[in-house]
Amino acid sequence: MTDDPIRIAALYQFARFDDPRALRAPLLAVCEANAVRGTLLLAKEGINGTIAGSDKGVEAALDHIRALPGCAEIEIKESRAAIMPFHRTKVRRKKEIVTMGQPDLDPLAGVGTYVAPEEWNALISDPETIVIDTRNDYEVQIGTFEGAIDPQTASFGEFPEWFRAKRAELEAEGRKPRIAMFCTGGIRCEKSTAFARAEGVDEVYHLKGGILNYLEHVPEQDSLWRGECFVFDERVSVGHGLAAGTHGLCRACRRPLSEADMAHDHFREGVSCPRCYDERSDEQRARYAERNRQARLARERGEEHIGRRDEAERDG
Questions:
Q1: Is-same-fold flag (6-93; 113-227)?
Q2: Most CB contacts within 10 A, which of 116, 119, 208, 236?
Q3: Any idea which residues carry the catalytic annotation?
């Protein structure tokens, strides 16, 4: 952990909130009163999000969150940054705190077996273990565990269909699956392993605390992680020890960009990148260019520019 002044807290907790609407305003008020920024999602199934601010401010927000029903023991994944990684404070109500499209699934009723970072290497090195990266395709592109299967999903909502097809393929080969899943911070695996068990798979494991927990606790020389880990804030990616990574971010499509991507002819800061250039119209690129120009002018005046959230921005 660095000595940078901004404290970042990534968190989630599956809990049973009878009335998420009633929780929203008080939580937002605490964050704003303490100059805490970031995004928090509230649903009947719990809370999810990442916030940042001063040590005192973030602690005030966390104290409030721990007082919510079922959140007293909420796990927090912390890191630090030199500058504020968020532009604003958002507390939103959602149907799910991580969207899988399985409304009847209850992660509190039974998830896979948790595996500590220190024990993860042995599990995924076993040739009988099927290792699955539950994240989206653009996240997997910049880093994953050695030997992991990439479902190549554009969103987490595509995972159930992919999993059912993959399971049928494995069982057709006569294999009884032993599955190990992982994701960024653990929340998607809470759902994906609960889903696998609901589908009748008995031996299901997941990395406790996710990739971020592994990168923090497993020394680089012992690591089976390859590349960087995408994060949903202005840091874009992190590496071992949760040090800031090398990737930039396309402001048009919200995908991570390598140094080669940023040297490509189709890359224009705030406008396009090699991956989204053919997905956008000239009209859209002109709008992005104007948004980028306004942001640059605001920076030159020493002001903060908060543009509207683009329709292409991806969920966490």
A1: no
A2: 236
A3: 183
Q: Return the SS3 of 76.
A: strand
Domain boundaries along the sequence of the chain: 6-93, 113-227, 259-301
Fold observed for domain 113-227: Oxidized Rhodanese; domain 1 (3.40.250)
Kindly give the residue spans of alpha helices, DSSP state H, lying in 48-172.
Answer: 55-66, 117-125, 137-140, 159-172
pLDDT digits (tens, 9 = 90+) for 188-246: 999 999 999 999 898 999 999 999 999 999 999 999 999 999 998 878 999 999 888 99
CATH code at 6-93: 3.30.70.100
Summarised one tens digit per residue, pLDDT across range 55-108 is: 999 999 999 999 999 999 998 988 888 889 898 999 999 999 999 998 788 888
Q: In Å, how far are 84, 187, 222 from 202, measured between CA atoms? A: 43, 20, 29
Record the pTM: 0.82
Please state, as a whole number, how many other Cβ atoms lie within 10 Å of the Cβ of residue 146: 12
- Give the three-class secondary structure for 271: coil
What distance in Å separates the CA atoms of residue 34 and residue 61, rounded to the nearest whole number? 8
**Rounded Cα gap, residues 161 and 154, in angstroms:** 12
Residues whose CB falls within 8 Å of the CB of residue 84, separated by 6 or more in sequence, listed in order: 6, 37, 52, 53, 234
